[in-house]
Amino acid sequence: MTAPAPSTPAPNAAFERLRSGDPATLARALTVLETGGAEAEGLRRRLHALVGSARVVGVTGPPGVGKSTLVGAYVETLRRRSRSVAVLAVDPSSPITGGAILGDRTRMGQHTADPGVFVRSVGSRGHAGGLALAVPAMLDAVDAAGFADVVVETVGAGQSEVAISRFADVTVVVSAPGLGDDVQAIKAGILEVADVLVVNKGDLPLADRTAEHLRSMLQLRAGDRHPEVVTVSATERQGIDELADAVDAAHRTGGGVDAGPRRRATELLRQSALAEAEHRLTGPALDELGASLHRGTVSLAEATEALLTRCADARGHRHQDRP
Amino acid sequence: MTATEHTQMTLPGFAAAKERWEGAYVDQLDEPITIRNRSGIEIQPLYGPDDWDGSRYLDRLGFPGEAPYTRGIYPTMYRGRTWSQRQLIGLGTPQDYNERIRFLIDNGSTAVSLLPCNSGFRGLDCDEVPFPLLGTCGTVVNSVGHMDDALDGVSLTDISTAMNDPTPFTLLAFLLGVAKRRGVPFERITGTSNQSDYISHYVANHMFYRLSQPGSRRLLVDHVEYCRQVVPNWNPVSVVGQHMQQAGATPAETMGLTLSTAIQYAEDCMARGMDPDDILPRFTFFFDISISLFEEVAKFRAGRRIWARVVEDRLGARDPRSRRFKFHGQTSGVDLTAQQPLNNIARVATQAIAGIFGGLQSMHTDAYDEAITCPTEDSARIAVATQNILREEAHLCDVIDPLGGSYYVETLTDQMEDEILAVMDTIDSAGGMYEAVGSGLVQQLIGRSALAAQNRIDSGEEKIVGVNCYQDDGDGESPPPMRPDAERMRRFVDDFADFKAGRSRDEVDRRLTGLRRAARSDDENIFARVVDAAGAGVTHGEIVAALRDELGFGDPLIVA
Amino acid sequence: MNEISSLPSPAVADAVRLRVLVTKIGFDGHDRGSRLVAAFLRDAGHEVIYTPPWQQIADVVTLATQEDVDVIGVSSLATDHLIVPDLMAALADADLGHVAVVVGGIVPDQEIPPLLAAGVRAVFGPGSSREDIVDAVDAWGAEARTAKLAQGGFA
Q1: What pTM was computed for the model?
Q2: Number of H helices, E strands in chain B
Q3: With b meaning 16 or more CB within 10 Å and e meaning fewer, what string describes B185-213?
Q4: Which of A107-111, B6-10, B424-428 holds the top average pLDDT?
Q5: A230 close to A242: Cβ distance less than 8 angstroms
Q6: Of B208, B447, B466, the CB nearest to C2
Q7: Which terminus of chain A has a lower count of CB atoms within 10 Å, N or C?
Q8: Chains in contact with C via at least 3 Cβ–Cβ pairs below 8 Å
Q9: Residue B507 belongs to what H/E stretch?
C-alpha cells in the first residue's frame, strides 16, 4: 500500500543523510519527532517509504529487575551476531515538572565506541502508560536509518507493556526473584502480552522457583501465544544467548514487510486519539453530564454516548502538531 | 525507671522549677523554632537530669579502655599519647611529594599518608593518560622505584604510613618492595591501607582502580590474610565512613553504613576461616568530621559503643583489642567554602575540636584552600599548626572524654545510637552491605540525604557564612593553584618510559602470568602475587590491567 | 536520582524542554555535585542524561550526538577542568559547536579565563545557587536549541 503521491513531500538532504544511517542526523530526527510540529509531521510522512526492515523488540518489566543491564548484555550478544542495534530507553518523566533524569544507558555498559550501536534516552513526557507518545514515530526513524534491531526499554507500569506489545515484533517481559509475592508485580496482564519471559538475576537463590511459578501460570492460560521462559543473569552475562535465540524464535513473521510499521502507525493513532480524547473530556461537557448522572436524569450508557458525541464535535485539535 | 521518674524522686522540687523555666522561656522567645541536627534529630533548648540521669553509667559509659568504650578505647587516652597527626598529601612527582613530607615531618607530623594521582584511580600508568592532569591531584606512583623516591630519606620503621590504596593495593606492594630494597623486615612496617573499603568506592566516591566488585571482595580478604601472616603490624582494613558522609549521608547514616560495611568485611574474612580475634584488632575506621560539633561527638561515642557490642555479640570476638574502635578523622572538606577562604581556618579548628572530643586516634586537618586547590605550603603549615595549638595551648587533652556526663551529649549519644542501629537494621534486612549496594538501596539513601541537605542550605535553614549569609564581595582572587612543574613532570614521564623499556620483558611476563594464574585459581592468594610483581618492577597499570582481565572491570554503582 | 521533588516549577512545554548531558571527564569520581545539579535541572522541567564519572572525551562527543543535547554540564572537583578545552575542540570537530557547555565545581579563578576562551559559556563555583545554575542553563540552552533546530533539515 502506498500513500497518495501528491501529499508525499520530496526528499531532502537531511533525509538522505538519515537513510545513510548518519547518527547525528538520526539523533536530530528523533528530536524533531519528539518535539512535534509541522517539521515532525513532514518527516514522519516521508519515513514510511523506508521503513520495514528493522525488528522491534520491546523489553519491559517492573522497576528493579535489571532491565537496563539486561538490554546492555543483549546488545552485546546482538553485536557478536553482527547485527546493528538501536536502543530507545524510555524513562518516566516527573508528572509535576515534566523533567526527568535519564540514567538507563549508564547501566547498559559502554557502547559509545561502537558505531553499530545507537542509544537514545527518551522521557515519557507525562504520557499515560509511561511510553512516550512519539515512540512509534521515533521507531520509524531508527528503522529508516537502517538498524537491524531496535530495542525499546520501558518501565512496566501497567499500561506501557500493553502499548508496546501492540507494535513490537517481539515483547520481552522481565522479572526477577525476590520481588515480594512471587511475581505479583508482573502478574496483571503481563502474561497476555509476553512473547518471551525472562527471569533475570538467575544467580539468586529463588530464581528457579520464580521461573517454575511463571511456567505453571502459563499452563493455566489459554491463548495462542506460548512464551518461552528464559532464566538469565545479566550481570554475569549468563543465558543471554538463549534469550537472543528465544527472541529469534518468537519473532512474528508474516503480514509483509509493512506489518511492523503499520502496527506502529496504528498505535500512534490510538495513542494520539486517546490523548486528545482525554484532553477534550476534561472540558465542561464532562462536568455537566456528570451532574446529570448524579441527579439520575440520564443512564450511564446515555451519558457516555452523549459525552463521546460532544467530544467528537469539539473544535480544535490539540495534537494536530504532533507527529 | 525512666530518667524523668528518677529525677522526680531524687529532686523533689525539680518539676516545679522546670515548669517555671519553661514558662519564662516561652514568654521571652519571640518565635519558637524547631531545630534538627543533620541526622534529623530534634534538638531541645535545654537538657537536664530528666533526660539523662547517669543511673546506667556502668552499662552505657563505663571507664575509658573498658567496655562499652563510650568514653574512649584506651585507659589513658590523650594523657598517655595524643592522636597522630597524619596529613593526607599528594601532588606532583615522587620528588615533589618527598619534599612536602619532609617539610611536614620537620613541622611535627608523626605519620605520613600518600594520595596517589587521580590518573592511577583508573588503573592507568602516567604514560597512558592526558598529560595536563598528571600530578595535579595526587602523586604519581606507578612503580617500586617511584615509591622509593617518594620516601627517600624517610625511615620506614619510625614513621607509620597510610596508603590511599584501593584494591588490589599496589601502593602497599610498592612500599613492601622498598622495604625489601632497604633491608627492612616486613614485621617492622606499620601503617594502614586507607582505602581498602571497596564498597564505599562503588557507591560513594568512585575513586578506585576499577576492579570488579566480586574481584575486589576477594582481594580484600586475600590482602587481610597476607598482612596477618607477613606484615603483622599493618592495618589492612580501613572502613571509610568519610566517603558516605561526603557523598551526602547524614552523620548517623554514615556511622550505620560504616559499621554495616565493617561487619560485611569481618564476616567475609571469617568465612575464609580467619579467627575474629586475629583480624579485628587490625580493623580501623576513617571518618569525616563535620562542623556539627556535638552531633559529631555523639556520632563517634555511639559508634564506639555499638562496635564494641557487635564485635562481641555478633562476630564472637573475645579479645578486648578486637573491640577497640580505632579511627582516623579528617576535617570535612564539604563544610569548607570557596568564598572568604580564610574563614575555613576557623571551621577546621572547630571540626578538629569535635574530633578530639570524639576520641579519635589520628587526624588530618584540611588546609583552608582545599575548597579551591591542592594545599599550598603555607596553608598546609597552618593546618598542622591548628592541631598543634589545640593540643599544646587549648588544654583539650587534659581530661578524658570531657563532654561525658553532659546531659545534652549523653542524650544525643543515645539518640544517635538509635538512628545508627535503625540504618544497620535496614542494611541487615537487605542481606548485608554487599547486597544492599547491589540493589541501589544505599545509593538512594545517600542521594536523598544529599538533596535534603542542599535544600536546607538553599532555603537558608542551614546557614553558611559567606555563602548564604554574611556574603561580601571582598574575596579577591583565590590563591594561585598548585600545579606540578611541567618540565619536571615531562622528564619524569620520559624516565618512566625508559624504565619500562629497559626491563626484561620475560621477567615482567613471568610475574604477570603468576598473577593471572592466582586470579584464576580458587585458593591462591592474589595479593601475594601483587607484591611479587610490584617488587620485580611490574607497574601499577600492568598489575591492574591483568587483574581486570581476569576478575572483571568495575563500574561504579550509580543510581541515577 | 531520588524521589524528593523540591521547588516544583511550572511544567515546561516540549518545544523548550532542554536535553542536558551531566557528566564528568578526566579522573575524579566524586559526583555529589553533579547529582544535585541533575536533580535541580530535572525539577526545572528538563531532561537530564546522567553519566557515571570518567567519561573519555570521545564518549562525551558520542553521547552528545546520539542524545542530541542542548547543554553539556561538566562537573570538575579535582583538576579535570584542565582538559575541558580538549572537549570543546572535539565537540567543534563533531559539528556540535552549538551545544552550550557549562562547567561546575572547583575551578581556581586563574584557570577560568582559558575555559571561557575555549568557548565554555559559564563556570559555577562552590556556593552557586540553584537559581543561578538553572537560569543560566535555561538561557544558554534555549539559545543552543534554537540554533540547533534552525539548522533545519527535515522541513
Answers
A1: 0.89
A2: 22, 11
A3: ebeebbbbbbbbbbbbbbbbbbbbbbbbb
A4: B424-428
A5: yes
A6: B447
A7: N
A8: A, B
A9: helix B505-520
